[in-house]
Amino acid sequence: MAETRYKVVFQPSGRQGWAREGQSLLEVARELGVYIESICGGHQTCGQCRVDVAEGHFPAYGITSRPHHLSPPDAGERACAERCALKPGQRLACSARVYGDVVIVVPEESRLKRQVIRKAATERTFRIQPTVRPVYVEVPSPRLEESGGEWERVQGELRSRFALAHVTPDPLLLRALPEALRAGRRAITLTLRSDKEAVAVRPGYHDDVYGMAIDVGTTTLAGHLVHLRTGEILQTVSAMNPQIPFGEDIMSRISYVMQQPEGRERLHTLILDGLNALIREATTAAGITPQDVVEVVLVGNTVMHHLFLGLDPTPLGSAPFTLVVQDALDVKARDFGLDIAAGGYVHVLPCIAGHVGADNVAVLLAEAPHRVEGEIHLVVDVGTNGEILLGNRERVLAASSPTGPAFEGAQIRHGMRAATGAIERVRVDPRTLEVRFKVIGEERWSDVWPQDALDAFDVRARSPRHRHRPRVVKARGICGSGIIEAVAELWRVGAIDDSGRFVPGLAEETERFVPMGTKGAFILAWPHESATGEPIVIHSDDIRAVQLAKAALYAGAKLLMQRLGIERVDRVKLAGGFGSYIDPVHALMLGLIPDTPPERVRAVGNAAGDGALMALLDGEVREEARRLARWVEYVETALESSFQEEFVAAIPLPHARDPFPHVEAFLAEAEPWRSRRRARVSRRGRPRRRRSRSLPTEDDAQGDA
Amino acid sequence: MAETRYKVVFQPSGRQGWAREGQSLLEVARELGVYIESICGGHQTCGQCRVDVAEGHFPAYGITSRPHHLSPPDAGERACAERCALKPGQRLACSARVYGDVVIVVPEESRLKRQVIRKAATERTFRIQPTVRPVYVEVPSPRLEESGGEWERVQGELRSRFALAHVTPDPLLLRALPEALRAGRRAITLTLRSDKEAVAVRPGYHDDVYGMAIDVGTTTLAGHLVHLRTGEILQTVSAMNPQIPFGEDIMSRISYVMQQPEGRERLHTLILDGLNALIREATTAAGITPQDVVEVVLVGNTVMHHLFLGLDPTPLGSAPFTLVVQDALDVKARDFGLDIAAGGYVHVLPCIAGHVGADNVAVLLAEAPHRVEGEIHLVVDVGTNGEILLGNRERVLAASSPTGPAFEGAQIRHGMRAATGAIERVRVDPRTLEVRFKVIGEERWSDVWPQDALDAFDVRARSPRHRHRPRVVKARGICGSGIIEAVAELWRVGAIDDSGRFVPGLAEETERFVPMGTKGAFILAWPHESATGEPIVIHSDDIRAVQLAKAALYAGAKLLMQRLGIERVDRVKLAGGFGSYIDPVHALMLGLIPDTPPERVRAVGNAAGDGALMALLDGEVREEARRLARWVEYVETALESSFQEEFVAAIPLPHARDPFPHVEAFLAEAEPWRSRRRARVSRRGRPRRRRSRSLPTEDDAQGDA
């Protein structure tokens, strides 16, 4: 007897083939390699496999498609359609059976491999195709005449309903399986990884599955907690790296490991404690538990990478800067004491070379200079260890720069990380030198704060009746973007000269300047504007720290430009995970990046974190990352003889040699007060300072070496 | 330019193909799928790839083979040949390059997949083809211009020298890699598992790699420590299962787990402690460390299997006797706290069904009834939980029987495990009722022990000058085989009747019998023959325990015979991991197995342990085990209504109903003393006892239920 077969076409992929009479659309789709989402495997529970039927004659395929060419919805499908809010005419692919030619349209939300545009930390396109997915299984009860165990019964269902023949259980999952079967009355949801391993089990039906993308910075840990099926970011959290007391930058962490017998183990434990606390914070805020997280993607510079993995970072401290491992790693979270789902994995993105780490790869994924045609893009990720990428699809160069923690608020007198109360924006009036600022958590600029709110929270007038609710969020310190703007503004108005020193006579102009010997401090927030009751200042040393940090980044970028043989870049992307976006104009005034038209400079937020997020949401991105990590050309700045020279030349504002014509336009507003103040420097004659303006002393240069 | 190629034939496989001029024999072999062992990958270090060159004309292949068709040995090969004791004319396949047609003979010891006959615990054939193998790698020093990490350099060597492109490192191995490279001056030996994962790293060259096969019994843990390349058994160790205080048999262990909230975790921890102690004992005795062990194969009954894996065994306590998992598992030892190499694995053989465990599969592997043509084989593995297999290549039935721990020396007044000082053989003189016995660790039977040695070690005469060295190993207790022989001998000489009770008037015949009310005890070893100074006896209760144990085994075997529709078996194999081999005649007299000509009954030692050993030495055996576990038909004795009846009928010696004609011949020697003693039973008239002889009371039957 000949078998009756019908033609089935799937849109938008256009894949087509023949279905046996009575075969379900889901089976046909699987045979044709069309990926339709299904969590419940045909139990009419999840409603994920919804499809539309196109109606009419399709000459291209030579068929006429009609809704009644499919079996009518049965009671189960009708119930599911109502519960899951299917649109009129939509069918469940698992239920609808083929009894005639049909053209099926798979809507975006039903595709297993989705191309969904998601607004994440910044406005980027994220593809959602995670390595983990939930599958719902109703497991037959054991019967005496059957010899297999509970897992074999689960596997039988995976084979028959999901066409998955080779799923292995995480051995620890087996411990939870009988209890889950009992609690779920033999219905469970497994979380599968790469359709190969079952990493988690829950009783009953669930369509949620969670992951975290974490950027392990030298100073800051920043993470996104994500719903892996929808791509929704549930929480974004950050915390200080608990290793900071053992060294402010990566070189001092390496020194600690070299000098202390238990140093490596101690830093490893600290970073794990920090990561576990971060995951707890995010999951608690989202109303779930750390054990609900089944996948973590980690990025970080090479030293953080090694310390997380428990690897010895000391060879990274001197040439030839040897990594223990460069490639990406998939490791069981429990092998490192990371407290997530017992069977969960950590994917660590690959490094590029000795000083060019997984964070750089993540920035590359997020900003994708390797996809740019023609134009040369410069991507600068500002952190304690700065990552720099330069190039386009022909060639991308990568380097890292020992920026130091100034931009993350460390080694700054009133520095703090980007959290509520941090000054993130600063403007200085060129005439009066009055300051207005914006604080994280407070929408209004400080100059329009209501006076009564200020009085009420003046520490000198604090009384019980005012304690209940602050009417304004006062300043607690300065975060990275605030520090950049404060220094750039002071320079713009002529309060500091190109060498970064306060100009003479400031104290006579404003009470905000407090001279301290040859140095001084500039008050940004008065005590009544401060949550601590103490003024918040920028000190001469802070300005120096910012100069050294920006010089390191600039020199790194310059070096890559020299390698590529270019004098100008076409576009600059300023990334950084420390709170507010960096203002391009202030970055240019500071000389943090090479001179570029400001409209071609864009702040892109936490690119490393976003790159980690992309790798979390899409398994294919991980493969791309591995390819890119090998393809990128890296430059070891520490060994370039010209780096030191470029670094020294970049310490003045905006630069000792390189012209910054685009900055000029932004100085006009501050004239003539700016010129008047700067003139005092030459008038009073300060030869030592003038010398350092064109050529800094060795001390300056070595301060960060 | 045409490439010059020569014909190369490998013997004994007969594989042939073309070699490019100058290609090494090792490369040619790899391309042709001829597996030649090489640890050093062509560094002329290991000498493992030695081959012979056949000389002459070979019409079958149409070539003439000459030694000079290969490149002459270079200095490195000559040095290696001397160091590794190559035979004259032997070449290293890694060094010898092809410059003409050759026929190469690969000796047995150079084959990567070997078929070597090994004498192990018993005389069995073991195939040596382990899942783990050592590879020696000389890792290039890192250079600044290279971006890969140390692992990538290792991987490069694996690719170029071993044609292994996809080896992943155990993440914890990476922690040890830099130190190994330093200590080995960049030469290391990796241990690869299935050529896919590097599970261990050592500095320098090593060709040894170790594994352990462990039978986790309810009462006894028994393990072999093995050199996995040679198959040599370095140590055989055993210990009591530390779970014993929480239940003598599997049902009482299950009860403990059901009644105690922390019971499962406690038994899991205990078994791990026991296994770790066993591994430590074996490795210390062999002069290595537990961390040198990279692979462990575990077998055990289903309850031991579940408790080791931390799985809930309570569903195994009642129908439908549900396993959590039936299939074999490969788990990282560290996931279960097993203290071997950090990256090492445990392979757990599959179970068959609820009460038919991985130990049964191991017995199946070792005794292979499924390979028998025609004849029906019965395999009985005597332990606290007895495993029974019956059939041939057509069909094999499997069952387990709740034997109880009597045969392992537990629940026996002077029982002990098979260790130094255990009475393993017993003979009773039919005329005098005098006893002679043999003790483990002492070659002489007790009746020829020198008198002065006995005096010297008599506790009453112990003095310092005699303490130095015992001249005879005295008895400390009775192990399984001793118990079987003691009971069988007492029955043979008529000291106990068929119901297992001491016959009347024994005390008048011999001082060895001590009446105790309706019961009594028979002294096997006098105080001066005992290491403790106390007599070692067989008590009425011990005889009862042995009867119940043997009845359970017999009933299980009988049930399988009924299922197969047979009345007699062709051969019996008596397995058991408790010391000395069971004597077939005594087993028959006891009625432990169905009546069979004694020459067709063979003791085969620890079959479960040997099966585990086979799976340890040969990865393919593991696949066979998985197939067999699904193929075997299992019988759940606990649910067979006839089991209870068969059990009750099997309690008398040798059996209440079934004839044992082959035993009769062995009773002749004991006549007429035997008849005379047995006659006293009916003379004095003991109706209650006679009743129990043909039909035991309910109490008897339920004693073991």
Structural class of chain A: alpha/beta
**What's the main sheet of chain A like?**
6 strands, mixed
Number of helices of chain A: 20
* Beta-strand residue fraction of chain A: 15-25%
Q: Which residues of chain A form runs of ≥5 with pLDDT under 50? A: 115-121, 457-462, 687-705
Oligomer: homodimer
Mean pLDDT over the residues of chain A: 87
Explain this structure:
2 copies of one chain form a homodimer. Helix content of chain A is 30%, strand content 22%. The longest helix of chain A has 25 residues, at 540-564. In chain A, strand 4 and strand 5 (63-65) form a beta hairpin. In chain A, helix 6 (263-286) crosses helix 7 and helix 10 (480-492) packs across helix 13. The first copy, chain A, contains 20 helices and 29 strands. In chain A, strands 14-13-12-15-17-16 form a 6-stranded mixed beta sheet, with helices on both faces. The first copy, chain A, has a 6-stranded mixed beta sheet with strand order 28-27-18-19-20-29, with helices on both faces. Chain A is elongated. The first copy, chain A, is an alpha/beta fold and 705 residues long. The interface between A and B is large, with 44 and 44 residues.
